[in-house]
Amino acid sequence: LCIMETCPSCSVTILSDQFSPNTTSDVAAGMLIPHTYPDSPINVQKQWFKDTFTYLFAISNSAEASEAGIQLVSGWQIFKNTPKEELPFWSDVVLGFRPMSEAELQKFPQHRFGQAFTTLKCDCPPYLLWLEKRLKATGVQMYTRKVLDLWELHSEYNIVVNCAGIGAHQLVGDEKLFPVRGQVLKVNAPWVKHFIRDGDGLTYIYPGINRVTLGGTREKERWSLDPDPSTTKDIFDRCCLLEPSLQGAQDIKVKVGLRPSRESVRLQREILSQGGVKLPVVHNYGHGAGGFAMHRGTAKEAARLVRECIAALQDSSSRAKL
Ligand SMILES: Cc1cc2nc3c(=O)[nH]c(=O)nc-3n(C[C@H](O)[C@H](O)[C@H](O)COP(=O)(O)OP(=O)(O)OC[C@H]3O[C@@H](n4cnc5c(N)ncnc54)[C@H](O)[C@@H]3O)c2cc1C
Ligand SMILES: O=C([O-])CC(=O)C(=O)O
């Protein structure tokens, strides 16, 4: 979508071996609470988050909000001990960030410190469908196809944008990319309106427009997509400790996804070349646990890189004509 917005004369085709609802993005909780990428400058991460927050905030304030699955949600991030960083880099992007009051903390006897704020949440499958609808309306073609090697696309396309998520491990052999397996439960508990996140990042309760997401797990380098029943019970018990009313939750569905993790998002241009033929590639993958929190900001940057590739192609073709 960002490419179509920045370069409306481009013709864009999406190739993917899986579409919604069978992607990692369909599993995500879709909360806008950033995770830090150790190897990306904080000011850059803050800009990606700001761009994403601003974009989704506008949707949440529009009549599209419910179809797009976007809503504002208020709640608490709680800590057993005061964290080193009391003011995270994103604290002035979310709304109304403040320390929790004593009265709020009384709800969590095992925790001593907390942050209260309002952020945005995407219900991921409806949001992905909403994006797909907008893509189709701009004339973008979508085909189911597994790409084995980016080079196989050189005779059909001028520029390739690689957004393969964890699939980039195989597609471009990126050894720096690894899965962090996550299991979550999607439950019916419409009385839960506030989010609760344990600051250790393991346990969270995120109410969305339709369902509440209960999490979670972080298992580095584990590739299995099979739900683990003992983990399901463990997640449920941990969440009930924080919000005992969840004992009454109904219709529990279990989902597993592989976070495409890296020390930094790979957001860069590369020129592939074989026998004098060149194929410009823009990589945009490796969003780890923050693909929703950062998606619009990183997509805007990827679209800017595509524009640079177009300018370079135009430049070399006009030189060839001289
Ligand atoms: C349990 C869990 C909870 C999460 N919660 C949050 C959260 O609250 N907030 C947040 O910001 N993030 C969250 N995330 C992280 C988020 O899900 C990811 O960062 C994001 O989904 C990555 O998006 P992506 O588009 O890069 O990858 P994907 O959604 O995996 O999309 C990649 C696409 O590329 C296709 N593809 C891959 N390889 C090929 C190939 N060779 N040929 C053709 N097509 C290919 C795939 O089929 C897929 O359609 C969570 C993740 C998990 C697992
Ligand atoms: O940590 C969270 O709050 C949710 C999330 O992004 C994940 O599980 O990856």
The set of bound ligands, ions and cofactors reads: flavin-adenine dinucleotide, oxaloacetate ion
Structural class: alpha+beta
CATH class: Alpha Beta
Shape: elongated
* CATH third-level topology: D-Amino Acid Oxidase, Chain A, domain 2
How many whole angstroms does the radius of gyration measure? Answer: 21 Å
The CATH architecture classification is: 2-Layer Sandwich
Largest sheet: 9 strands, mixed
Beta-strand residue fraction:
25-35%
Strand tally: 14
- What's the N-to-C terminus distance? 35 Å
CATH superfamily: D-Amino Acid Oxidase, subunit A, domain 2
Mean of pLDDT: 96
Low-confidence stretches: none
What count of structural domains? 1
SSE diagram, text form:
Blueprint: H1 2-6, E1 13-16, H2 24-27, H3 42-60, H4 65-68, E2 70-79, E3 95-99, H5 102-105, E4 113-122, H6 124-137, E5 141-144, E6 160-162, H7 168-171, E7 178-188, E8 195-198, E9 204-207, E10 212-215, E11 219-220, H8 229-242, E12 250-261, E13 266-274, E14 277-285, H9 291-321
Parallel strand pairs: 1-5, 2-8, 6-14
Antiparallel strand pairs: 2-4, 3-4, 7-10, 7-11, 7-12, 8-9, 9-10, 13-14
Helix pairs in contact: 3-9
The site of oxaloacetate ion has 11 residues, from loops.
Organism: Colius striatus (Speckled mousebird)
GO molecular function, one term: FAD binding
Domain FAD dependent oxidoreductase: 1-305
